[in-house]
Write a structure and sequence with these properties.
Blueprint (H helix, E strand, L loop, with lengths): L1 H33 L30 E5 L8 E5 L4 H13 L16 H4 L24 H11 L1
Antiparallel strand pairs: 1-2
Length: 155
């Protein structure tokens, strides 16, 4: 009796494998037929191959933001709200944020109870070892003014 159950279980297992293989072959064929290729077959350069100096268009955010000041006239507390939400809803959000502006922190000194160990970066340097100076990264002369301009803009 145990032998009959074993044989029956083995037959069921073989049948399941056959069904899975036929289904897999059918679905692979269907997937290949329905598949749209994402390849580029023309000679157009891809975005990362283009010369960065040749591009004049700037990337724009999908959801542009509007700066909102939550502070009083003496201290500026900037935060940002989406420009794509309705005006009435935006006004209610800004009013709510101003009401609860004590929940926001713009400076480390405003974050009471936060350990300095959590926010400070500590490099594990051995006192007995001499630091190694890295080789400076060289950029193309055409890119250097753009880098300086971006750094000044960020500062």
């Amino acid at each position: 009796m145990a032998e009959n159950r074993f044989n029956a279980a083995k037959e069921v297992e073989v049948l399941q494998k056959e069904v899975i293989e036929t289904l897999a072959e059918d679905t692979i064929d269907d997937l290949v037929d329905d598949q749209k290729l994402d390849c580029i077959y023309d000679d157009e350069p891809l975005g990362f191959e283009e010369d960065p100096m040749g591009s004049t268009t700037k990337m724009r955010a999908h959801d542009p933001l509007e700066e909102v000041d939550l502070g009083d006239d003496t201290v500026k507390r900037p935060t940002y709200v989406s420009t794509q939400i309705p005006k009435e809803f935006k006004d209610r959000i800004v009013e709510l944020m101003k009401e609860y502006k004590d929940c926001f922190a713009w400076d480390y000194n405003e974050m009471y109870g936060l350990s300095r160990k959590m926010v400070e970066l500590k490099l594990p340097i051995r006192p007995s070892k001499k630091p190694i100076k890295q080789i400076p990264i060289r950029f193309a002369p055409q890119i250097l003014p753009k880098i300086k301009e971006e750094i000044e803009r960020l500062l």
